[in-house]
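Moderator note: this is an archived Q&A kept for reference. The question asked for a predicted structure of one protein chain; the sequence and the answer are reproduced below.
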Amino acid sequence: MTKRITKTELNKLAKSLYGEEVYCEHTRTGKRGWYLYKGTEPIFLGVNATEAFNDLQFRENDLPLQENVTEMRATLVAPIAQLTPIKKEESVAKKPFKKPKSTTTNTSKDEKVLKTISPEKLLEIFLEKFPKAFFRETENIHPLQKYIHKKIRKALNCEYTKNEIAAALALYTQTTDYCQKMIEVGVRIDLEGNHCEEVSTLHIEDAIARISGEKVMRSEKRKKKKSPKALLSSPQADQLIGGYMELKLKINDLPTDSKTLRNGWEEFIIKANGQNVKIVVRPRTWKKLQQANREFPLWVANIKGKMGRHVKCGFELLTPGIQIFEKQPKQAKEPLE
């Protein structure tokens, strides 16, 4: 395996040959590789560190061996002068091209802030931007192309919402003069004023019905306000009827952290649905639970009672009634022959 030449070794060899002011450096701009720097003009040694080291060794082998280092340096002045320096343009680091910062911020269509404008002002913009499609003079009015609102929005770079464009179009199209032109002209035009399609019989009949008053002129579309749902009013205290709430819990294991009270009653706490339920039972009931835990391999106790006062992270169960049942293990079904 070839030994990897380090920058330190290159500099050590170069200084031994040319003096302490000489050093080696690698550059990535221009002609990439290792250069020998002495004075102002760098001298190319090789693409990688190994080539540069061999180049320096080759120059060292060409020199006569002398014991005096000062005299050896003097003999190296002529060979250094004879070395062909690289072009100045290659040694100058090329600065990467940086795009000029734009003064305007680029925003996507989703981030673009839509303008809020009245239908009257937006119609004036239509008259100015599309003079071949929208006219102030009644005699020049032509029926517009179907779904022209999409082309208008695209032509205006989506600066206005669909509802704003529809409201402005309603001011222009829902008039007696426009409906009259629907009947008389019978041909639609696009934004450039070119004939694109004929007015359908259905639309002509609709225009006649609006002129005669059978149908009203449509205004801009507005969202219907939903009437709020009627909420039930809270009844008065004397109108409330009484009810009974009973809680039911199940356990299949004997609590191990129970506490015997002075009167012999047993108190324990059960964790049910994230709440602590405090239960106090008679001594006889507690003995039945202990007996079931000793004699039955599987058992379950149903505990019923009323919700009492609040305790830490739960409540107390009042007047608990407990029923204990032995559970039989489920037998495995025999495979069918």
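Archived answer notes: The domain at 119-212 is CATH 1.10.1710.10 (Fertility Inhibition Protein O; Chain: A; Domain 1).
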